[in-house]
Amino acid sequence: MATHHLASWAHNLLYSDLPQDVVRAAIKTFYNWAGCAVGGSDHPAATIARSTLTPFFGQPTASLLGTSYSVDAQHAALLNGIASHVHDYDDTHLDTIIHPAGPVASALLAVAQWKGGFSGKEFLLALIVGIEAECKLGLSVWPEHYDVGWHITSTTGSIGAAVAVSKLLGLSIQQTSHAIGIAATQVTGLREMFGAHTKSFHPGRAAQNGLMAAIMAQGGYTSSLQALEAKRGWANVIGATKPDVQANMDKWLGIAQETHGVGLPVGAATGRWEILRNSFKPFPCGIVIHPVIDACSRLHVELEARGLAVGDIQSVHATVHPLVLELTGKAKPRDGLEGKFSFYHGGAIGLLYGKGTPAQYEDAVVQDPEVIATRDRIRGTADSSLAADEARVVLTMNDGEVLQSHVLHAVGSLEVPMGDEALEAKFIDQCSSVLGDGVHAASQACWAIVEAEDVASISKALCTC
Amino acid sequence: MATHHLASWAHNLLYSDLPQDVVRAAIKTFYNWAGCAVGGSDHPAATIARSTLTPFFGQPTASLLGTSYSVDAQHAALLNGIASHVHDYDDTHLDTIIHPAGPVASALLAVAQWKGGFSGKEFLLALIVGIEAECKLGLSVWPEHYDVGWHITSTTGSIGAAVAVSKLLGLSIQQTSHAIGIAATQVTGLREMFGAHTKSFHPGRAAQNGLMAAIMAQGGYTSSLQALEAKRGWANVIGATKPDVQANMDKWLGIAQETHGVGLPVGAATGRWEILRNSFKPFPCGIVIHPVIDACSRLHVELEARGLAVGDIQSVHATVHPLVLELTGKAKPRDGLEGKFSFYHGGAIGLLYGKGTPAQYEDAVVQDPEVIATRDRIRGTADSSLAADEARVVLTMNDGEVLQSHVLHAVGSLEVPMGDEALEAKFIDQCSSVLGDGVHAASQACWAIVEAEDVASISKALCTC
After folding, report:
1. With a cut of 0.90, is the ipTM above it?
2. Which residues 6+ apart lie within 8 Å of B36 measured at CB?
3. Domain boundaries A2-280+420-461, corresponding CATH code
4. What pLDDT score does A263 carry?
5. Which member of A58, A191, A202 has the closest CB to residue B56?
6. pLDDT tens, A234-262?
7. Superfamily (CATH H level) for B287-407
């Protein structure tokens, strides 16, 4: 039932069914993903993957964003997916901590450019369908599936990508069901890989898995038509540690509950849309650090306004949710990657730079004596009465003066989302060194996707060829 | 520890460490795999995969066996892997029901032909290393991992293929560890796909996953160095339903137990070799049916010798292990695929043809009135005192005479393995319609692999180009 239900919903959904805020969320999701894919294109995880896999590249029909390379669509999906995730700077569906765009948008843009002739509206509809599919499936197995050690972005992402590409290419309900099955049987992503190149391989491989599944299903390759719900199908196997996983999946997919506004009402425009719960990171690091960076960035502004220097600070005291110390308590980070797991570093760059962009996570910044000296003056206290996106930071100056900042909801949360201007600043910051003068045209092309006659033109705007 | 231990063992093993019976088992495994890959090359699961993926093929450096096509090595690994498994006729490691050769040999032959210059001995050493790796890992998680719904051939096969290709290409221990990690994070294969094309996709994709992992690791792509044993690594995640899975893996990998003759002693030639426990199927169907086909084939000979016809049989009574009725109790199979899950059909073709080759599983044979009439006279009784590879069949003729056959160990079991002649007859039967006059040269080339200066020549003997 679940497989058929999901395939039917995806097949039947019309662009005219989409509320305007859902379309708007999809544009922002695409925009943020594109900036991340361009911005990550020169990271070693992307460049090593590209160089090692070069002997396998097929006909060049799809662009590697941020580069002058064209490759076959499968490898474009893989490599753009890797680049989009490698800085941990992409979108987050906060209820499941899935990063939805990597698998889905990477697969879709590769197929759209390869085949050609797809409008922005067709693309956005497929993007929304894929993201809803992966996030609903994520909710079905959350949190046990993640807790046991699966990287939920890619384990659900293969299926999301398959559904999205099936939608874009107009596959039948039965073909879409087979595509779901071929994708579901490729369960990619162990959390043990966090911290290594292979972490960003996960959303890339999920994009490729899903693309391949849809193309094979379109040509008649058969799978199970009960891939999600069967006794030895996806939910029961990868959610084996979750009680009642099937009932939970039925709930989230809206089976027999269409009238309750939950799940995926077949072909209807009401119900809960997961894409509205997608968020964008202002800082390329673990999301629990964000409130500290936000609070310290506000204090940076106040220090400047009052003519005070960071060197005048005697001590910094941050009160945070307990998870912050547990997950990001690295007091002496040695390089950029370790800096992403240090709230001390987050606080220091907030105070010193008033922001946290990829530049503040370069090795040289993490090793800078002034940054280290600031970091060493920061102390943290866990307080479980604080929310996860809340922080209080108190500065005591050398002359005894006290400055305070209390962030109730960090920027980038659902309550205080990044606005279009902030997203654009992030895009420009990530892409300008890669795209040069073309960065503004690229930004405009991405913002205007809904009007695009052929989204292949956007791929071209995002590369240097 | 487990990841490093496995990588070290693989890296250090020398051809001179291999006992002669292990080399002999590897030759037979390769020979049987090659015949299956050629024989399955025109099955729709292979031809649909080939045609749908054609737009992605890279430089043609590796042959699709049984065809005139050359493709990039990744797609050769995938497509030869699919073909080798599609008739359910490949090898079986009976302790885990892993089909070891599909993932490992498909990856290795593709790489060997692509890169060129690998001798038969180098190839066999890598084949043995890969098969030991996947079967030991399979034993580590057996049976819970299979019971919950994973297709153990491909979930372990990706890693086996990665280790094998790493060995062939001479990767360092650290590179091999990274390759294990990149492969381990791609957990492919749900049992729900049994009965569909996607079942044979599993070993093919495992071959491709492992090949890709080794190539990426060789170029510096990083993964976890504790991918197998970490808290959120392979064994704990995919073996989450098995108690003490880590201790069990240590046991099977021979960690701290090198002196007990169990596991994988580093660089030594003693210990238990899983490849010696690999078996070959005389019949392309579920292995539990084999004793019935064997017993009925013997009765076919006896009927012929005594001038009796199958039409003279009044009733057939088979006493079998309970699993036979449970797994293969399909009394009215409608086509070849369903015939593979019908011990009634197995009995009928044994009596009528004295054999069970792919020809006896063609749709036309399953639907033949004489076959149906024979099938309908067969009754089965479960008897748990029988072994799984044992069967008793009693024929009652129309004149009241009774003929009996008692198979203690079916042909193809470890006790009564297929001899070289039987394997060769199987190879010729599978390949002659595909390779034509070239079939004998192909057979000779495969048997002589240990003497080959460059195994690329064997790839060429197995295709029609």
Report:
1. yes
2. B83, B84, B85, B87, B89, B90, B430
3. 1.10.4100.10
4. 47
5. A58
6. 999 999 889 999 999 998 988 865 544 44
7. 2-methylcitrate dehydratase PrpD (3.30.1330.120)
